Amino acid sequence: MTTASFSRVFEIHGGDLANAGRVSTEIKDLLKRMGISPEFVRRVAIVSYEAEMNVVMYARHAVLALTVTPSAVLLDVADEGPGIPDVDLAMQEGWSTATPEIREMGFGAGMGLPNIKRNSDVFSLDSIVGLGTRLSIRVNV
Fold first, then answer.
1. Mapping DSSP to helix (H, G, I), strand (E, B) and coil, where does residue 98 land?
2. What is d(CA 78, CA 124) in angstroms, rounded to the nearest whole number?
């Protein structure tokens, strides 16, 4: 693993199902090239994929800031979207506001936020209805 910090910013576009998963794949590849352990890479890949898919399915646009330090990977995802009216409800496994079209494609099972929390060492979610949602995630090495 590197001893220096690394950071990069990615843009995610809402509704862009053709490119869904591209950012999380880039993150996974970066971490592998840095020599980070496969178990750790797997956790970060899950977290980044679920966050990316939430943006694609629900928001208009987001910026995902990735920071890799010797002790952790930090992801900060700030979207421009509808916001989450009831965060406690959204954190329950199986709860989803996915459209029938999204569900027909195999997404929207209501596992995204619970999976992010489960694979994070530190997780916070702030959401303002009508403005957007911000996820701050830390996965310790």
1. coil
2. 12
Whether 41 and 32 have beta carbons less than 8 Å apart is answered as yes
128's tokens: 């303002």
Strands 132-140 and 61-68 come out as: unpaired
**Alpha-carbon span 84 to 21, nearest angstrom:** 22
CA distance 120 to 45: 11
CA 66 to chain centre: 11
Give ∠ CA 85-55-2 in degrees, rounded to 5. Answer: 120
Query: Residues 101, 106, 107, CA angle at the centre, nearest 5°?
Result: 75
- What are 15-51's pLDDT values in tens digits? 999 999 999 999 999 999 999 999 999 999 999 999 9
Residues in the chain: 141
In terms of phi and psi (left: phi > 0; alpha: psi -120 to 50; beta: otherwise), the region of 45 is alpha
pTM of the model as a whole = 0.90
Q: Which fold is adopted by the domain 6-140?
A: Heat Shock Protein 90 (3.30.565)
